[in-house]
Write a structure and sequence with these properties.
The chain is built from three helices and eight strands, in the order E-E-E-E-E-H-E-E-H-H-E. It is α/β, with parallel strands linked by helices. Keywords: Cell cycle, Cell division, Chromatin regulator, Cytoplasm, DNA damage, DNA repair, Mitosis, Nucleus, Ubl conjugation pathway.
């Protein structure tokens, strides 16, 4: 991919060009907060008139993000964990299938446990997965 800008670029009309850039393959682990606050209704309603919760909004945002990332590089992969009192897997296998994300969202359930979340397990999972991703020449990203 090379981009050239010819009109009005630089001093004296000199052209700029960007060299081709290969996007790295990424493994992206989403950690979704599923405490009681995630079920709070927002001010907007959905297309069917039903109130939208914070969790609904989070799911929609993640789906848009996934579609955008796969447009940039179809080799990106995604997995999902939930976070309430501690982190736990929702979908452990990394995949680039959008339908897999939708299925993982169906598996999310809101936890009634309150208090502070312990991120220790999430960091352990991320550290282990980072080694696996690195061995496959991939970058691990954790989004909470």
């Amino acid at each position: 991919m090379e981009v050239q800008v010819l009109e009005g670029s630089g001093r004296g009309g000199a052209a700029y060009s960007l060299k081709a850039n290969r996007y790295s393959n990424e493994d992206i682990l989403f950690c979704i907060d599923v405490d009681n606050e995630s079920m709070v209704e927002m001010k907007n309603t959905g297309p069917n008139g039903r109130p939208i919760t914070r969790l609904d909004s989070i799911k929609q945002s993640i789906l848009l993000f996934i579609h955008a990332k796969l447009t940039i590089n179809p080799n990106h992969r995604f997995a999902f964990a939930s976070l309430s009192h501690s982190a736990s897997w929702v979908r452990k296998e990394f995949t680039s299938e959008v339908d897999s994300a939708i299925t993982a969202f169906r598996g999310l359930s809101v936890s009634s446990s309150g208090g502070q979340a312990d991120l220790t397990q999430l960091f352990r999972v991320a550290a282990h997965q980072a080694k696996k991703s690195r061995s496959q020449n991939r970058i691990l990203r954790v989004i909470t």
